[in-house]
Amino acid sequence: MSSLADNSGPETVLVVEDEVFVRMVISDYLRGCGYKVIEAADADEALMVLQHDGIQIHVVFSDVEMPGSMDGFGLAKWIRANRLGIDIILAGTVPGAASAAEKLCEATHLPKPYESQAVVERIGWLKALRSSRFERSETAVEPGAK
Amino acid sequence: MDQPIAKQERAFWGNHVSFVALCPRLQEGWDVITASPADEPAAKQAVVLVVEDEVLVRLMLADELREHGYVVVEAASGDEAVNLLRGGVHVGLVVTDVRMPGNIDGVGLARFIRGEHPDIKIIMVSGHMTSPEAVNFVDGFLSKPYDLKLLVRNIELILARSSGMDPVE
After folding, report:
1. Segments making up each domain of chain B, as ranges
2. What is the pLDDT of residues A56-108, one digit of tens each?
3. What local confidence, expressed as pLDDT, does residue B161 receive?
4. Which residues of A touch B56 (CB under 8 A)?
5. Least crowded by CB within 10 Å, which of A104, B9, B34, B118?
6. CA distance A18 to chain B (A)
């Protein structure tokens, strides 16, 4: 129950993917790399996880094309509107997905099929970016505090 | 005379949570279920497939099992579970909900497993009374809401017994 009760420790990645084998492989790989992973089979499941107060998500790695009430773009837009601070990586084969992802929600995009290691590298890059943003904001606040 | 562990636990939990030995498959071994620390390493090499369409329930159970050292594969429906098993994922035990959307519910999944993968152990969980037919397919039945630790303990017991009689690779 660590994902529900304990938000300290490793970063938590929410993997949203309707193809069970793809979800299993990338989730196992991320766990092997030390991430805490929560699996969602579609955007509706992802929303249930994201709306749970006791679960802190750092990164959402989502497929673009999924069945259900919304696709990966819709999920990314919802996150941008409701959960600031969560990084989003979209994966898909939709033509023009990369530019669409950036326009819609500043999400980063990985073309399918992707290498698992590429996902890990992208998550690490986003974490570094988040850290540098945090440091800049700390630096920016400090002079005003005088 | 010492009672078998399963009976002691059943008596301890009383009516609070019931792990019901409905199943002939389980009852055959009911009086000889014992688990020692030496059983656990072999049993925990087994992969547990959790089949549950409620994501938060699936998450809690999968997390609990991983914390106990199991390798867990998650399926959000009976259809996903069938795909995994047909795709060659080696599973030692399946925990499945009964009522799930899709082409195959928990009872259908249990029937499929008994036909195609008779060595896989099955624990069924449900908030409703399931069909009497299901008891012929499963190794244990737990009514919802269930106590996670009790479910994990019974998974340990079933896998430990299984590893003694028919080692799980």
Report:
1. 41-163
2. 999 999 999 999 999 999 999 999 999 989 999 999 887 777 777 767 666 77
3. 87
4. 4, 48-49, 52
5. B118
6. 9
The predicted pLDDT at position B17 comes to 31
Contact A114, A92 (CB under 8 A): no
Question: CB pairs below 8 Å between A and B: how many?
Answer: 46
Does B11 or B125 have the greater pLDDT score?
Answer: B125
pLDDT at B62 (0 to 100) = 97
Q: Do B63 and A3 touch (CB under 8 A)?
A: yes
User: Looking at the partner chain, which of B55, B63, B75 has a beta carbon nearest the beta carbon of A20?
Assistant: B75
Report, as an integer, the average pLDDT of B36-52. Answer: 70
The two beta strands, B19-20 and B140-143, are: antiparallel
ipTM of predicted complex: 0.83
- Determine how many CB atoms are found less than 10 A away from the CB of residue B66: 18
Token output for B160: 């430990």
Class of domain B41-163 as given by CATH: alpha beta
Give me the DSSP letters along B33-95. ----GGGHHHHTTSEEEEE-SSHHHHHHHHHHHHHTT-EEEEESSHHHHHHHHHTT---SEEE
Most A-contacting residue of B51, B55, B85 (CB-CB within 10 A), to test interface: B55
Residues in A lying within 8 Å of B, measured between beta carbons: 1-4, 20-21, 23-24, 27, 38-42, 45, 48-49, 52
CA distance A92 to A70: 14
> Hey, how many other C-beta atoms are within 10 angstroms of the C-beta on B4?
16
Tokens 């073309």 sit on residue: A111
